[in-house]
Amino acid sequence: MNRKTFKTYLITGATGLVGSHLAEFLVRNGQKVRCFVRPNSDISFLNTLQVEIIQGDLTKAVSLDRAVSGVDVVFHCAAMVSDWADRDTMVRVNVGGTRNIVDACLKHKVQRFVMVSSLAVLGMDKQINANETAPYVYTGDNYNYTKIESEKLVMQMHREQNLPAVIVRPPYIYGPRDRQLLPRVVSFLKDGKFVFIGAGENPISLVYVKNLVYALCLASERDKAVGQIYHITDGQDISRREFIGTLAKKLGYAEPSKSVPVALAKIMCPVLEGINKLTRSKTPPLLNKFRMKFLDTYLTFDISKARNELGYKPEYSFDSALDETVAWFRNEEFVSAGV
Asked: Beta partners for 32?
């Protein structure tokens, strides 16, 4: 962050993991920050920061006009993340919402539009140091579909209407205030119910939220970034066994030792998904393709482009990042217990 440059920033999805850390970072660097949040969102953390809060709905274009007016840089962090929501809903929020924020950015001539996408756009299969030239792979998963369509829309608007856009693709994100990924894992570890799929030795690229925030800020500043897509990770690949084992140790839980054969898990996925669909369950099954990918698939990604063009260098190592994350989880447990 160039501390001598003072701009007005808008963050969508500001109550989420990425958005809240981004708001915190920008405020601490003396920047003017506006947060676009849904009505009835939990804004308790944002209220501890000096930010302007505007309520609205991404699916309603009219609510974005006031939010974008007078803004220099827009960080589009909002998205519906789910492995079980229906496609129509996810298209309306993720693709339609992106269309609306893009239109507002073009209308108000923002200097930079930075979208947080996802490496889910590359599909469910093995990725070995995949870079930005890897093709889109449609998997049938609704999140994958909406992220691909959102990216295509943004790049089309860049080409056709000169939208000053940058797309940043993270893998699985972890860190303090995570309400999506690690809470599920920690819950299973706490109850002694976590089970590896296979040996747990396949590597995975993760990104600590503060490393991602740093990359997003670089993407908002570098002239060369406009019209580009960047993969952002911690730059350090680890096995599932190392990740889960280290997390358990730092939390003071027993390291899991049980495992399910990969072949059996692959058979179980469609069966469990089918049962939940037939029963119209509103919650995902214990195991599905999305979770299978996180627990087993070989997933590593090349961040050379971000290093070379953005000057990105992860500031937090896996160990230091996990220390901060675990400290937050412990505090959350104490708070929940009323201690």
From this structure: 8
Is the CB of residue 305 less than 8 Å from the CB of residue 230? yes
Whole-number pLDDT of residue 337:
43
Domain-embedded: residue 293: no
Residue 70 belongs to a domain: yes
Could you tell me if residue 255 is inside a domain?
Answer: no
Residue numbers of the domain that contains 86: 8-178+206-236+299-318
Q: Residue 212 in contact with residue 275, Cβ under 8 Å?
A: no
Note the pTM of the prediction, 2 decimals: 0.93
Q: What is the mean pLDDT of residues 51-59?
A: 96
Cα gap 116→69, rounded to integer Å? 21
Closest by CA to 79, choosing from 33, 117, 52, is: 117
Number of other residues whose CB lies within 10 A of the CB of residue 135: 8
pLDDT at 283 over 80: no
Q: What is the CATH number of the domain that holds 160?
A: 3.40.50.720
* Helix residue ranges, H only, the chain: 17-28, 62-68, 87-90, 96-108, 142-161, 182-190, 209-221, 240-251, 262-278, 289-295, 304-310, 318-336
> pLDDT tens digits, residue range 208-223?
999 999 999 999 999 9
Q: Does 325 map to a domain?
A: no
